[in-house]
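User: Last request for today: this protein with NAP, please.
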Amino acid sequence: MIKTTAKTKLFGLIGSPVSHSLSPKMHSFLAERVGIDAAYLTFDIKKENLESFLCGFGSTDALGFNVTVPYKIDVIKYLDEIEDDAKNMNSVNTVVNRNGQLYGYNTDGEGFCRYLHIKGCEIKDKNILVIGAGGAALGVCYKLAEYGANSITVTSRTKEKVNNILKMVKKYSNTDVYDEVDTTCEYDIIINATPLGMHPYEDKNPCTFMELISENTVCCDLVYNPAKTLFLKESQKKGAKIINGLGMLIMQGILAFELFNDVKLDHEKYYNELSKVFEEFKI
Ligand code: NAP
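Assistant: Here's the final one, the structure of the complex with NAP:
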């Protein structure tokens, strides 16, 4: 049971569905550790109610809210200010309420890149293959390019989404972009940004280019439940370093928490603490 007082501030998550989210546990943990009197709740909002929720939100003294599927684009038109990265990506996962003005940010891609840094995996000058071209791939690719990736290849079944991501990367960086896998390229990092590997696709490996994987490859899955997807298991057998989506989840959450509460946290320290909280998803 959360203990609230008359001074407890509200923050939370909007989306649909939200009942599976780990964010309440993560933000409640951080609030308690940092000594902030705030409660993080989830709001499962129907599309037809999104406008009234957002229009009224600024009139409260709530801290803000995270945004998940399917509203990362839809919220944008209701915000007063949008940080450049989120604007360029056209995707917002964090909205901060500052004196009634709603500010939009996106911490997803930054969270992923910060986690790679914690794991000692460099992005600069690397050749990166991303499988999947949805919202998560978009944020991740934008930031990988900003962090100086040499090339980004995106492959997915819907070509239009692939092209949108590559167009964005090209517009805001000098990173080379490709929409087809080069079977002669030694990709340094391969990322699964599809749901293949998680329920109900546990027996599916999204990577049809396993021959490209060696002990020099870093294989990342944005999925963290199960902790080790088929893609990661098969990659590990080939000697690759493997990383799952828990680190991204935690790091985007820490970055959002900093924005909501106007604090700076020691990222590695709180990553380590939170990864113990979510031990079952660790690999
Ligand atoms: P999304 O916007 O729905 O995009 C999913 C991508 O996967 C699309 O390119 C989609 O292709 C493709 N895809 C979906 N089902 C497929 C199938 N059966 N076969 C082949 N391709 C398929 O989802 P998202 O928000 O980008 O999330 C992608 C994954 O990342 C999810 O598993 C999500 O849980 C995970 N994620 C993790 C974090 C984290 O913090 N760790 C954050 C965000 C997302 P089409 O466009 O053709 O449908």
